[in-house]
Amino acid sequence: MKKILEKLNIYKIHIRSWLIFIPIEISVVGLASGVFGSPGIYFVHYVLNILLFYLCGELAYPLVFKKKLVWFWKLPLSLFIIYAFYLVINYFVDYNINKHTSWLLFDEVIFNSRYAFGVLWRALQFMGFSAFYYLFKEYNKAILTRGQLEEARLNFMLRQKEMEVKLSHATNAYLKAQINPHLLFNTLSAIYTDIRIISPRTAEAVMTLSDVMRFSVNCENTDDLILLGEEIDQVENLIKLHQTRFEEELNISFTYENQVRIVKFVPLILLTVVENLFKHGIYSDQNHPAIISLSLVEDTLVLTSWNLINRNKQKNGFGKGLENIRQRILLIYPDSSNFTIEANKDFFSLTIEVKIEKI
Q1: To the nearest 10°, the Cα dihedral for 199, 202, 206, 208?
Q2: What is the domain partition of the chain in residue ranges?
Q3: Helix (H, G, I), strand (E, B) or coil at 24
Q4: How many CB atoms lie within 10 A of CB 3?
Q5: Which residues on neighbouring strands pair with residue 339, listed in sequence order?
Q6: Contact 316, 305 (CB under 8 A)
Q7: Contact (Cβ atoms closer than 8 angstroms) between residue 164 and residue 201
Q8: Where are the beta strands (DSSP E) in 11-166?
Q9: Integer CA distances (angstroms), 166 to 69, 170, 184, 241, 256, in order
Q10: What's the CA gap between 281 and 120, in Å, rounded?
C-alpha cells in the first residue's frame, strides 16, 4: 500500500485537480439544467473524457507539434481521427448502458447528427483543456531548460575563471622562478587535465606554459650553446601565453632574420630579456609598441629591446635579471660583446651586441 501511495504521489496534482473539477462541473450543470444523472453514468463518461484528455495532451499534441512546419494539417487531421474514435466508443458505451442498465434518462440511444454534435461539444471541451495542459507543460519545460542552461553557463564561467586564476598563478610562479620545476610541472599537468574539456583555449595556454618552462629547466642544466631558433620559438610561446592572460590586445613587435635561427648562442638570454619586458614594461599601448628584434650585421648578433616603463609595477628585482644577462655574456664573450642600457622615466632600451663565429 505504501508503494502505491508513493507512486500516486507523483500524480497528486492531477488527482486533486480532477477531484475538484468533476464535482464542480456536475453540480453546476445539474443545477443549471435541473437534471442530475446516476453515479454510474457519471463514472463511465468521466473515465472516457479523462482518457481523451491524456490521449491528446500526452500523445497527440507532442507528436503533432514535433515538426513545426507540418502541424497545421496534422492537428485537424489527428483531432478528427481522435473524435471519430471517441464518438464510436461513446455510442457503444451509451448503447450498452441503455440496454443493460437504467442509468440513462432516455429510452433509446439514436446515432444521428444531434447525438454526434453533442459528443463533439463534449470532446472539444476536453481537447481544449488538454491543449492548455500541453502548452503549460511545454512552457514549464522551456523555463526549466532555460534555467538549466543558465546554471550550466554560470558554472562554466566559474570553472573557467578558476582555471584562469590557476593558470595566472602558475605563470607568475614561472616568471618569478620561485617554484620548484617538478612541482610546477605537476601543477600544470593537473590544471590541464581539469580544463581541457571545459576551456580548450585555457588548456592550450597551460601546455604552452609547460613547454616554455621545460625549455628553461633544460637550458639551466646545460652549459652548451643552443640554436637561437629554439629560444625564438619559446619567446613566441611566451608572447602567446601573455595574450591569453590579458583581454586587451598586446602591441609587441618581435622581429628576427631567418638566418638568426641557426646561430648558436647562450641559452635564456633572449627569454630573460622578454620576461623583463613583461615584468616591468608596458606592452599594450597601441601608439608605442614594445619592440624586440634580432639581426645579424656581418658577424655581429644584435639583440634590441625597447618598451615604455610601467611605473605602477613593483620595482623589487628590477635590474637583477639584466645584471645576470650581462655577467653571463661577459663570461662567454669577454672580448667580443657590448651591453648597452638606456632608460629614463618613460622608456627602457637594451642593446646587446655579440660577435659570433661566421655561419
Answers
A1: 120
A2: 14-151, 251-359
A3: helix
A4: 7
A5: 352
A6: no
A7: no
A8: none
A9: 49, 6, 11, 14, 33
A10: 82
8 A C-beta contact, residue 269 and residue 328 = yes
Q: What angle do CA 339, 344, 348 make, to 5 degrees?
A: 50
- Residue that is written with C-alpha cell 507543460 in the block: 137
What is the C-alpha R_g of the chain? 41
The helix (run of H) or strand (run of E) holding residue 97 is: helix 71-100
Largest CA distance in the chain: 127
State the cell numbers at 284.
599594450
> First-to-last CA distance in the chain?
93
> Quick one: CA dihedral 86, 89, 92, 96, positive or negative?
negative
Per-residue pLDDT of the chain (359 residues; tens, 9 = 90+): 666 666 667 788 888 889 999 999 999 988 888 888 888 889 999 999 999 999 999 999 998 888 766 777 888 889 899 999 999 999 998 888 888 787 777 667 888 888 899 999 999 999 999 999 999 988 888 898 888 888 888 888 888 888 777 776 666 655 555 445 656 666 766 676 767 777 777 777 777 777 777 777 777 666 678 899 999 999 998 888 888 776 657 889 999 999 999 999 988 899 989 988 888 898 888 889 999 999 999 889 999 999 999 887 655 555 677 888 888 888 888 889 999 999 888 899 999 999 987 55
Q: Which CATH class is domain 251-359?
A: alpha beta
Q: CB under 8 Å to 282, separation ≥6 — which residues?
A: 288, 290, 307, 308, 309, 310
Element (H, E) at 294: strand 290-297
Q: Which of 25, 23, 261, 3 is nearest to 129 (CA)?
A: 25
Asked if 235 and 271 count as a contact pair (C-beta separation under 8 A), the reply is yes
Single-letter amino acid, residue 86: Y
Partners of residue 291 on adjacent β-strands: 253, 306
Q: Phi/psi at 129 (nearest 5 deg)?
A: -55, -40
